[in-house]
Amino acid sequence: xxxxxxxxxxxxxxxxxxxxxxxxxxxxxxxxxxxxxxxxxxxxxxxxxxxxxxxxxxxxxxxxxxxxxxxxxxxxxxxxxxxxxxxxxxxxxxxxxxxxxxxxxxxxxxxxxxxxxxxxxxxxxxxxxxxxxxxxxxxxxxxxxxxxxxxxxxxxxxxxxxxxxxxxxxxxxxxxxxxxxxxxxxxxx
Amino acid sequence: xxxxxxxxxxxxxxxxxxxxxxxxxxxxxxxxxxxxxxxxxxxxxxxxxxxxxxxxxxxxxxxxxxxxxxxxxxxxxxxxxxxxxxxxxxxxxxxxxxxxxxxxxxxxxxxxxxxxxxxxxxxxxxxxxxxxxxxxxxxxxxxxxxxxxxxxxxxxxxxxxxxxxxxxxxxxxxxxxxxxxxxxxxxxxxxxxxxxxxxxxxxxxxxxxxxxxxxxxxxxxxxxxxxxxxxxxxxxxxxxxxxxxxxxxxxxxxxxxxxxxxxxxxxxxxxxxxxxxxxxxxxxxxxxxxxxxxxxxxxxxxxxxxxxxxxxxxxxxxxxxxx
Lengths: 189, 323
Fold this sequence. Notes:
heterodimer; A: alpha/beta; Rossmann fold; three-stranded antiparallel β-sheet; globular; B: alpha/beta; 10 helices
């Protein structure tokens, strides 16, 4: 998280209080490598694969995944950021948050999109991402990769690639980055 | 006071944070406008009424495009073919339109204070001032500041949306022409000075307001010196419809003393930014050739109108209103 993003979080009254660390940076690194191999196995290669990270937590993870895929497959894997703020179904129910940049430029028609987020929770962010992706054409397939699946789905959405399944209580919150995964309280979603 | 969940009636007294909130949000909508599908569903199902009681090309098109790109429905009133021509009062016109179920009104009117008046008629509706008489044209002030920040950010290789107001520190802005009758001047001055820029005005004495007390500006005593001083030169339109012609001896007299003519261009800093809110009187406040120079960012101002107005409608409408 950049200083600017932390400032925005404070302005929105969000604060993450750490309860315990669940994965170290090395644990995350191993999980990422496994997921990269799974992506290649599932798609029988990397032809037509585009990695799309959801702002903000999914972007760094998507970039790392694309780097790992490129290293294993010896090809450059396109990666881009997607902000789904303007596609959410809860606009107006919380204080508005500023949107981050979407860097996705290419038409996704006939591509296989690996959509990446840090934490899969209610599934509503992923629904918003589907709505957004439709504006970039018709991909052959969309697959979902998440660093942590914490349960509590409110929509029929399931991930294809999971770094770590983590049973949580609704009142808890999870911070998942390339530097590690922490359980905490404070941020509901 | 932030415009989140609120009306946008004036930039006068608006805080730096509230202005930056609009500019930063507009950066994300600028990106939306670069896409193949330049539309997001964030105001789906909302109704925006576009009420222009005074003629306009760019502001009206720009607001209506902005509302549609946010997924809102737009109802617009063509005053020339409406009951306004039969003498219907502003209040009655507004209640008629209100009965159709509106979420926001974008209002352009020849009377100063019309937007405030309408906001009192329909307190449950968000009102966005698209120009009221000689008072304010807030979205023009915001899009001018947005355009300047974007250009400076490109030059300095920084990201505009995280630069805050830093690029306005020490920036010298010169506003030239009919300050007296110009709502654009009032909104521009409020925006630039709130962001930390230094603002100077240049005009014939008759086109300055009767008093500049409380205005965060200095008056230039020498137009050509001020041109050499400025980083940004904002020209204003000589407003014939407000009788400006009678405030100057002749248009050619105005052009020779305060026009940005081709002979004055060498006085400008090489990287000066030349702006005009349009519509231009080519050959009066600006020479036709000067309007087409690379320093002139007039078409960019028009293009930036859409993302800035998207940001205004989004912030004003998407956040729940505190009643």
